[in-house]
Amino acid sequence: PNRQIVNLSGISLEYDNRPWQQRRAFKGGPASSTFTCSNIRFDLETNGLELENGSGQVYPAYAFGTFFPPLQNFMKDIIAPQPVQVNAQRCTFPLAKRSEVPILGTIRVTSNQPAAYHFLGTDLPLDKFSAFVNLTDDFVTVDRINGKCCGGASMPWSKSAFRASPHPWTGTPSWTVRICRNSPPHTAKSKSPPTAGGRYASAPPPPT
Fold first, then answer.
1. CA dist., res. 57 & res. 62, Å (int)
2. Percentage above 70 pLDDT, the chain
3. Which of 4, 47, 141, 168 has the most neighbouring CB atoms within 10 Å?
4. Helix extents (H) in 16-160
5. What is the per-residue pLDDT across 171-187, written as a single tens digit (0 to 9) for each?
């Protein structure tokens, strides 16, 4: 047998949620959550980890920060006071700074509970929230973020952060915000809710 490879099949990981709830000031959530994987593979020679068919009701940043700590700071912008459904078919992570194992995979996040997303300095409340966290070796992208905001239309956008930098980079997709029907200056006599549209982008931080 290859002693450099460790395969763990039918794994069930139980998270103690209390430290994360206290850190994020979340109240009323369960004390623990479970994340299951059909297989977790450790490659001791390349210092890599691969998980297959992972799913569970967990806090996304807290759960995946276990496998790759830098993900926690990026995914915490998904503000879920209650655990949400997370699915990941296949993901790989490096376990050491000099590891050549790439970051790869897609994490699907969905929630039927009220959630929020930290966007341009504001926590936007979202209902029926969903998003894909795409992992590549160059950058991580929270993509196809969707949710009902202020009783209006769904809001799709994306956000990226480069692996080598802790600073978030955002792309330049167009975005549209539909103001909720009862917000001023909209009135019942208006034919349709007002909208606000535009584009957003941010440059990398200046060199120091």
1. 12
2. 70
3. 141
4. 18-24, 60-64, 70-75
5. 333 333 333 333 333 33
Mean pLDDT score, 70-85: 90
Contact (Cβ atoms closer than 8 angstroms) between residue 168 and residue 202: yes
Gap between the Cα atoms of 16 and 49, Å rounded: 22
Strands (E), the chain: 5-16, 32-43, 48-58, 78-79, 84-94, 104-111, 115-119, 122-135, 139-148, 157-162, 168-169, 174-178, 195-199
CB-based burial, 38-54: b 16+ in 10 Å, e otherwise: eebbebeebbbbbbbeb
- Band of pLDDT at residue 1, cut at 50, 70 and 90: low
* Phi, psi values for residue 96, rounded to 5°: -145, 155
Neighbours of 146 (CB within 10 A): 16
